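Hi there,

I know you've been waiting on this one. I reran it after we fixed the sequence typo, so this is the corrected version. Both the input and the resulting structure follow.
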Amino acid sequence: MGNSESKTNPREPPVSYRAAIWRRLQFWEELKPFLMRVIRTLGVGKAIDIPPPKKGEDEVVSIVETMIVEALRARSARVDPDHQSVDRITGKQAGSEQLEESNARKTVTRATRALQKRMVVALKDPKPGVEREEGKDVGYGHDQTDQDHDNDPEDEALVAQYVRSSLDIALPKIKKEISTGQATGNEPALAYGDMDRGIVFSTTTPSATSHSKVLPPAGLPPVVQEELQTILSNYLTWDKKLYADLRLDPESIRLVEIRPGSGQIEVDLIKKSLDEARNAYEALSYTWGSPTPKETIMVNGVKVQINEWLFGALSSLRLPNAKRCLWVDAICINQADIAERSIEVQKMGDIYRLAKTVVVFHGWPSTTTPAGSLLTALFKFFSRSVNNGVSDTESSQANIDVEDPFRSCGLDRSIVCQGFIDFCFRPWWGRVWTMQEFYLATEEPVWYWGNTGVSNTVLKRDMPLLMTASWELYGGKDILPWISRRLEGRQETPDQFSAEIRRIFDMIGRRHKTHGFDIPSRLYRSLSAQATDPRDLVYGLREIFDPVFRRVFVPDYFMQLELLYACLAVFLIQFEGWGDMLWWYPHRFQGNGLPSWLPDFTKRVVPAVTEILPGDHLSESHVQLKLVVLNHALHVEGYRLDNVEAFALIGNATELDVLRELWRFEATFNRSRLYSIHVSTEEELENLEFNRFLAICRSGTSQDNSSIYHPVASLLDWTTKSNTGLPSTLPECLPYWDILMWHAFRIGSKAVSEQFDEDDRNRPGILQDIFSSNLSNAFRKIIAADFIADCVFDWDPLEYVLEYFASMLLWSDGNSPYWQSMAERKLSERDQWDKELATIVSSFLASLQATSPESVGDLSRFHALCSLVLLDASEHTIFIHILAQLRSAGEELHRLSLDWRVQAQVDDLKTKDETVAARVRHETAVKAHFNGRSLFWTRQGFQGLTAPGVEPCEGADVLLLNGLSFPMVAKDFNEEQGNGRLVGCAIVRGVDMRTWKGKAKAPQVPERVELGEKSLFKFT
């Protein structure tokens, strides 16, 4: 919060309408070579000899023809109007050619005819002045000027036509025969052709003369049914008594005039043309809240009801002595008429641009609630600038003490900062329409709390100061509990909330940078908004996107939600080049027959601060199409990596349970191998026993059955972002780790030591003096951390090994040949004996594994511990003594991990010792990062972690797909045909997809792993 610089999107490429349209043309050109590869791979080129265009034939056929051929080949495109004539043309060949070839040629002819009907213009270069300028990004150009708003409508129409053509081919109409006894029927599917083209593609806005009224659904509980009936009855009153005489045409809007005075609110609902209304009204931006009408007002003399939030806005904005003219969506649009709503939403851009002011209403004060007084203090702080006559947005913040502005207006800094934090929690920030309403204002919007208003200029000036001051107070005792309470019920950590405040700051500051224009893929990547109607996650943003987007996504509230989201997904994939949309939106619709690539755009991933994020596709200098949707299937090139053998779900558990699950995975697949990277000191180099131990451990590494070589790294190293401050090992995330280390070795900070009395401090640690002086350092540096972590997270397997270790026949008796041979070993034979010792330990653990319960997991991870015990035991009695001490110490450490008094010590230490406080934060961060995700392993030995929001799927395949930043997990995958269904993205250890986005020909994989040939995959 203390830094006003954007951390969510460090690279902010400038934006421009012209550059956006040119970028879409480039993506369209990229379709041709990609689709030719699709056709060849699917065998269409073999079955159908596509003839080259004849001299003088329409050249544009080559681009879209391949798309239509693929669609028609699967019998999924609509029947061409000239179907019969095509049959007559190709029927003449039936006698001399095989039926299959005849049908194939018929398909090509039909595709060509359909193409020539749909595409009447050829792909052309952009208008002069739109070409890529020297030194500028090929992406979205530079700051937009007024000339960008005057973009050539022909260019816009041309590119919009290309987009709609691709949607026709991506989502054609499919008729599936369903057997129902003796009858058959058609199963409906998503089809772009089913859209109401009368609404979507009309150049003028039709008048809504017929109405589709919303009826309450049946089967609801009586209380809900009654509430809905009240709402609908109120809407019908509006419709019959008010809207009936104020029907709208394409050039008119309704306005609300609030009559002055006090007491009951009275307003006049009037109708004006857009030209007449220009700069004569204020556009209200507010949060609807509950739709239930609870307050009564008079509209044109008719008593009607409105909800509480709108009533509060009208009450607060009413003037004492003059009328106030507003545009208010809940009143000025007939919400019960879906057709009118679809049409009026198309005017929203003009409505907010033509308003003299956009009024942002956040609520109204109440002396009975803390939030009311806090926000009142905040707005008083904002207003101090106006009262002092300071209006310069850059005014004298540079060399001023943070306390001074608060003191100057007699306000307490903590109260104002709490008000600021509450301000950032107001529901307005989470409403999808707010960005569009805020960006489109011609003049700076005015923020209102009750009847107190401040300009956005003031907010922009004061926000860095408030962010800094709030950050300084964030860790203080006086405000932290209050912040925690405000976070209750929200799926955010304090760090994520800090990122949200930065997002708000960026939103406020970017209004003038972008002139109200943004890039769809960039906005959907950071979108944190809700909508009453989920279609508004498209329609509520369209006015701040380029004209092509607006031409394609014209509001239609009759449109099936899944179809709308499918069209948006195709647009983002094919005309934004945003394959990582599949990472940001991992949740899928549950209906049968829906594509597995179809995201639910109401559920975006809110990544933890530790998350490794996908790359920025907007930073790529070369526009390259890598994923295409054809015939309801996503086509993409890539490699098959491996098959998932099993997974471990990390459920919604406590912090300790999450660490425990991670440790068990770590212990099985990624056991700490500090011995392999240990750099010995001079003293250790002279210690023969220490070096023998390292040699034995390194020879035991061969027990790893994986054929994949990974450098030594902990689970946190490859699953989390590197610059987040997390420790490298899981045990260090345990809040009471320092307390356990003090019990074990009597080491720790002064604050930790003061938690114990003098007698405790004078006693040796419970893990001290177990091993001889020659090997005590080996235990402490190489094994102790794993031993203590096992005592906390996974005691049962460790106890199991310690219990049965002494009972192995080879060394269970003091007179056994093993102990007798110990005395006879010569110094010159020690190298050979060390190798035998490593083999003996491996054999013991393997035999114990064969008879152990499955719950103990992989016991080979205890190879180093068992080797150290045998190496240090010169005789049987010492061997038994070491095991007894280890078991006793382990039991004590395990007991301490469950002792409530240890947690009490942590609660005390986290205010005194920064190391302990950091461990508490790390434990919380680890839970936020891994909660609800799955760790998995594959048959070859790859280890992986599903991306946020991805459901686990045993037996799935891991694929490396071009155009994505992370590997993809797919189910029902047919390797021979390359078909399957997407599950979601994942992090796979040792696999780097980012190199593939650059100049590399393939993604980076671990040593000794060979990728096969690149294939074309198809996901339905």
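Quick highlight: Residues 11 and 938 are 36 Å apart (CA to CA).

Best,
R. S.
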